[in-house]
Amino acid sequence: MSLRFDRVADEYDAVRGGEERGAHIAADLAPQLTRRGPVLEVGVGTGVVARALQGAGHRVLGVDIAAAMLRRAQRRIGPRVVRADAACLPFPDAAFGDAVAVWVMHAVADREAVLREVARVLRPRGRFVVCNNRSPEPDALTEIVDPLLGQLEACAQRRHDPEVLAVLADTNGFISHGTFLGAPRAFTELPAEVADAMARRSHSALWSVPDDQWRDVVEPAIARVRALGPEPLKRVKRERLLVLERR
User: Fold this and answer.
1) What pLDDT is recorded for position 153?
2) CATH number at residue 109
3) Which of 19, 23, 61, 20 is nearest to 44 (CA)?
4) Which residues contact 124 (CB under 8 A, 6 or more apart)?
5) Is residue 16 part of a domain?
């Protein structure tokens, strides 16, 4: 079953960088788009990326299965949002010039079905740019949090690697142009706020952790994050983009 993010809609922007992060990711995505038609955002969420793409001159339509997220997206980009499952898109063939998906493909139940549907609604040689992986510079938080979330996503079979998606894409209507790193994004985070978000299970990898694994694995990690102290930590991350082209 695909993950629905209604449960974290109220805090989603606050814990994931909001419009500032959306603008940064949109700036990474834009150079990879063909500009030969409207852009479909698969998993539009709260609309932060779509709004920034619109500001750069793209016509964007967003889909999501989470009604609570879509209400926030509609406030940002207007009525150009549709509630739909990405594995069954309510659009005619070849309706879009390009498509993007930002931190979505790990949450879908059937990645091949989504690839086939995106390929169907794209025009030939249209691009599907997927952002679902990052290259953080090593820091104290990264050393604790990233291995934990990666382990939990692997256990839940939610881990996404661009190389795996590229192989799936090859048999579902696309050719791969490989992966590209976006521009470095510098920001600060308070360890206490990160720990609080983990304790609230804000990240989808934490939603279904069994009680024993929570006690033995997650709670010690939360304690390690809190032990980093009260000062904000400087962090740098770069989004990793997989660029696919419709055959």
Assistant:
1) 82
2) 3.40.50.150
3) 61
4) 94, 246, 247
5) yes
Q: Is residue 136 part of a domain?
A: yes
Q: Which domain holds residue 135?
A: 6-246
Count of domains forming the chain: 1
Closest CA to 189 of 178, 181, 201, 198: 198
Q: What is the spatial distance between Cα 99 and Cα 89, in angstroms, rounded to a whole number?
A: 12
Residues in the chain: 247
In a domain, 1, yes or no: no
Q: In which band, very low, low, confident or very high, does the pLDDT at 159 lie, cut at 50, 70 and 90?
A: low
Instruction: State pLDDT tens for residues 113-144.
Output: 999 999 999 999 999 999 988 888 899 999 99
The two three-digit tokens of residue 10, written as one number: 């109220």
Q: Is residue 220 part of a domain?
A: yes
Q: Which residue(s) pair with 144 in the sheet?
A: none
Q: Which two tokens stand for residue 57?
A: 């001159």
Question: What average pLDDT does the structure give for the chain?
Answer: 94
